[in-house]
Design brief:
CATH topology of chain B: MetI-like fold
CATH architecture of chain A: Orthogonal Bundle
Strand content of chain A: under 5%
Largest sheet of chain A: none
Largest sheet of chain B: none
Oligomer: heterodimer
CATH topology of chain A: MetI-like fold
Radius of gyration of chain A: 22 Å
Structural class of chain B: mainly alpha
Number of domains of chain B: 1
Shape of chain B: flat
Shape of chain A: elongated
Strand content of chain B: under 5%
CATH class of chain A: Mainly Alpha
CATH superfamily of chain A: MetI-like
Order of helices and strands of chain B: HHHHHHHH
Number of strands of chain A: 0
Number of helices of chain A: 8
Structural class of chain A: mainly alpha
Largest interface: A-B, 37 and 40 residues
CATH architecture of chain B: Orthogonal Bundle
Number of domains of chain A: 1
Chain lengths: ~230, ~220
């Protein structure tokens, strides 16, 4: 029994049907962790990107080093680090939030690069034209650069959203009951790993296929010439 | 306990991590070429298998794949009368290689498709056999284009090896967890391990850069 739902081991088919609602409970947690982690990654990535384009190299270089460090170290270790170290500094978060934070930290290194690449991809002539027209640099950014960068940034961020979703199972090691963790526990208790784990694989496949259609839709339907912010 | 006393068990784990990374990256590279070229094949069976492989392993989580191979495959083997129980090392290397190979296959496909069409036409006009065209014309031009992404994938693979500690393989992450259980000194242990992974990633990146420079010589002159 799990989440108050009994499983039925009378036949393999009945077993699969009976554990499906249990896995869906896990699926909801997976999606929640994905969304929360993604938002943390969006914000932290923005901070890192801003620091990496700071006017002085005393900020720029450490920011680049931190990004590189985050990107080159495993999510699992970062997760353990946050899970065991934060409480020692008096910050005790629930496992779910620690997990989402770890996802956010790991992927902030990637999102910061997405922002940077998106902004740099805007043609140099645009900046020069804005300058020639005597636009203030803040106006150039919000009205010229950003509207043209956003259509490039959003699909790339969408790909990382999918990657985050695929990394959520790592959170099961700190007792977050996401889908794979749930399937593993069902397997531990019944001895039947094959059906729950295969179902998780299948559900993942369905989710990533839907998500990749979404990303492709965004990629083709966002106006390539820029998105008006007005 | 001094932090230096952690170094001996951690370096034992580090050696396992290095071996896992090397074996699974090489095996993954082989999968990448096999299935990346398979996806471009005109044979519908080869193409179908390659597309299915790439979609399944890119579309699901590595940890799901790892658990499936380690926990679920033996049960399936039992049902069909085969012994598919693998030791953790084999399950780990195979899962990592299959996963990274699927990502690599898309890179191979992209790079091969990016070789200009005139190159194929010229090779055909010069009466090259299709095997010779692949080995002498396509791959020497495609491989240098793959290398930067392969470098990223190799680092990705190094990071992913940490997950095999969850099927009780004694890699660096596993040793770290053991030491933490024993000493409760989580700050030191995990800081140390983070820096060790970072160091390994830097070395791996440097190696991939060297390889990139080596195969860069295959690039067509004048392009």
């Amino acid at each position: 029994m799990f989440f108050g739902i009994e499983w039925d081991t009378s036949s393999q088919w009945a077993f699969a049907v009976s554990i499906f609602p249990i896995l869906l409970h896990g699926l909801v947690v997976t999606l929640q962790a994905t969304v929360v982690g993604f938002f943390i990654a969006l914000i932290l990535g923005l901070v890192l990107a801003a620091l990496k384009s700071a006017p002085t190299r005393f900020i720029r270089w450490p920011a680049k080093l931190i990004t590189e460090f985050i990107r080159d170290t495993p999510l699992l270790i970062q997760l353990f680090f946050l899970f065991y170290v934060l409480p020692e500094f008096g910050l005790t978060l629930p496992a779910f939030l620690t997990g989402a934070l770890a996802l956010g930290v790991q992927y902030s290194a990637y999102t910061s690069e997405v922002y940077r690449a998106g902004l740099e991809a805007v043609a140099k002539g645009q900046r020069e034209a804005a300058r020639a027209l005597n636009l203030a640099s803040s106006r150039t950014f919000t009205h010229i650069i950003l509207p043209q960068a956003i259509p490039r940034i959003i699909p790339a961020l969408g790909n990382y959203l999918v990657s985050i979703m695929k990394d959520v199972p790592v959170l099961s090691v700190v007792t977050v009951l996401e889908m794979l963790g749930v399937a593993k526990i069902i397997g531990d208790r019944t001895g039947g790993y094959l059906i729950p784990l295969s179902m998780v694989g299948g559900l993942y496949l369905v989710m990533t296929i839907i998500a990749s259609f979404g990303v492709r839709y965004l990629d083709t339907h966002l106006p390539k010439r820029g998105l008006s912010l007005k | 306990m001094e932090w230096t006393s952690y170094l001996a068990p951690l370096s034992q784990g580090a050696w396992v991590t290095v071996q896992l990374t090397v074996y699974s990256t090489i095996l993954g590279g082989i999968f990448a070429f096999l299935f990346g070229l398979g996806k471009l094949s005109h044979n519908p069976l080869l193409k179908g298998i390659s597309v299915a492989y790439i979609e399944i392993f890119r579309g699901t989580s590595l940890l799901v794949q790892l658990f499936w191979i380690y926990f679920a495959l033996p049960i399936m083997g039992q049902a069909i009368g085969l012994d598919l129980r693998f030791p953790p090392v084999v399950a780990g290397v195979v899962a990592l290689a299959l996963n990274i190979g699927a990502y690599g296959a898309e890179v191979v496909r992209g790079a091969v498709q990016a070789v200009p069409k005139e190159q194929y036409e010229a090779a055909t006009a010069l009466n090259f056999t299709s095997r010779k065209r692949l080995w002498r014309i396509t791959l020497p031009q495609a491989i240098p284009e793959m290398m930067p992404t392969f470098g990223n994938l190799a680092v990705q693979n190094l990071k992913d090896t940490a997950l095999v500690s969850l099927i009780s393989l004694g890699d660096m992450a596993f040793r770290a967890e053991q030491i933490r259980n024993f000493t409760q000194d989580s700050v030191t242990v995990y800081t140390l391990v983070l820096f060790m992974y970072f160091g390994m990633a830097l070395v791996l990146t440097a190696c991939m850069k060297l390889l990139e420079r080596y195969v860069g010589r295959w690039r067509a002159v004048g392009r």
